[in-house]
Amino acid sequence: MSAIVVLGAQWGDEGKGKATDQLGQDVDYVVKYNGGNNAGHTVVVNGQKFALHLLPAGILSENAIPVIGNGVVIDVEVLFEELDELIARGVDTSRLLVSSDAHIIPSYNKVLDAVGERFLGKRQIGTTGRGIGPTYADKMNRVGIRVQDLLDPSILQQKVEAALEQKNALLVHMYGQEPIDATTVTQELLTYVDRLRPMISNTQYLINTALDEGKTVLFEGGQATMLDIDHGTYPFVTSSSPTAGGACIGAGVGPTRIDKVIGVTKAYTTRVGEGPFPTEMHGPEGEALRERGGEYGATTGRPRRCGWFDAVVARYAVQINGLTDLVVTKLDVLSGYPVIPVCVAYEVDGQRIDHMPMDQTSFHHAKPVYEELPGWTEDITGATTFEELPANARAYIEYIEKLSGCRVSVIGNGPGREAAIVRHSLQL
Ligand code: GDP
Ligand code: IMO
Ligand code: MG
Prior knowledge:
By secondary structure, this protein is of the alpha/beta class. It has 13 helices and 20 strands. The strands form five sheets. It has a ten-stranded mixed β-sheet, with helices on both faces. β3 (about 40-45) and β4 form a beta hairpin. α3 (about 105-120) packs across α4 and α5 (about 155-175) crosses α6. Bound molecules: guanosine-5'-diphosphate, 6-O-phosphoryl inosine monophosphate and magnesium ion. Magnesium ion binds next to loops.
C-alpha cells in the first residue's frame, strides 16, 4: 500500500499539476480531494500544453484511474467541456470516476460569488468567480446539492427549492437581483444526468479497497497551504482544505494510511487575488520576474503578484502538512540574477520572528528579513542531475532545504514533463 499526497506549499500555481502528472505515470489512482475549477494546472506533455481545471492531472497519465473525490465541488458543465476538449485532442478520459458525495456548483452560486465580491467592494477577496465559496458555504449550511441528488429528480427539486428559498431572499433584498426559479435550475441540472451517471461511484470504498490491495494512490490538492480555509491568510483564502489533512477528509481515507506528503513550491513566490504577501515586489522588479516566469493565471489570466522565496512560509507549510519532501519548481527562471534574496525571517513591529505570526494584523505588518545568495548565469534547462547544476544553484537549493527543514527531492528546470532533476525518488 502506498498513499502519497501532493499539495501546494505557497499560494497556489507552484506546479502541482506537473508534479502530479510526473508521478501519475507510476500510480494506480490519482484522486483530487478539494477545490473545483478555481484551480488551473498547466501540464506540458511532448511539447503539447494542457490546461486542466477540474480534472485531476492524472487524466493525462496512461494507466492511472483519475478520481474526483468527495471533497471537490463540481461545475458539471465545465467538467463536460474539459472532457470534450481532451477527447478532441485524443486523450482517453473513459476511466474518470466521480464521487457520489461531491457537491455540485449550481449556476446560482456563480451569480452569488460575483455579486458577493461586488458587494465587498474594497474588501473583496479577488475570487476566481467560479462559485466556489458559496458552494462550500452551502455544504456547511447543509443546503448543498450533491452528485447523488441528480439521480433522484424529486429529491433534487426539493433541495434546490430549499437552497433557493434563502438565496432568493438574499439576491432580491440585499443584492437587488431577480429571483432564480427552482424548476429551471433543477431541469438544467437534470440535463447532465445521462452523461454523468456512468462516472458516479462510491470512491471512498474504491480508494480504501485499492490501498488494501497494495495499489498506489496519489492524492492531488488544488490551491495551496496559504489559501487553506483554516491555515491560510484568512479571509483571503479559498473555501476548502488544500492542506494534507484535507486529503483524508476530501477522499475518505484515514491519516494512518498516508505514507508521504509532498509539498510543491516555486523557487520564488507568486500569489493571485488579494491578501497579504510579505515578499511581494512592486514595480519593475516584480514585473521583470513575472515576465521571466510567465506568471499569468491559468484560470483567469490575471497577472500573478511576484516576490522572492519566503522560508517562513516554507517552514510553516512543512509543519502544517507534515511534509516529507519538497519539489522546488521553476529554478530555471532565476538563472541570470546576480544575487537572489531569500526571506529567512520576518520583522514584526520591531521584533524578529522566524515563524508565522499568531494574528492577521502582525502578518500584514510583517517585513521580510532578507539574506542574499549569489546567483548563476548559466541556462540550466537541460540539466538532468543535481551535479550538472552550477555550484550557486546547488547552494540555493541546499539553503532552501536547510531553512525549510525538509529535503528537496525534485527540482523543476522547465515546464515539460521531463524537465525535472530527481535527487530522491518520490515513489515509495
Ligand atoms: P499548479 O496550479 O500548481 O498546477 O501550477 P500552474 O500550472 O498554475 O502554474 C505553474 C506554471 O509553471 C505552469 O505554466 C507550468 O507549465 C510551469 N512550470 C512548472 N514547473 C516548471 C519549471 O520547473 N520551470 C518552468 N519554467 N516552468 C514550470
Ligand atoms: P491552483 O490549484 C492560485 C485564489 C483566488 C482568490 C482566492 C479565493 O491552480 O494552485 P476562490 O475562487 O477559490 O474562492 O478564490 O483563492 N485561488 C487561487 N490562486 N491558484 C489557485 O489554484 C487558486 N484557486 C483559488 O485568486 O485569491
Ligand atoms: Mg494553477
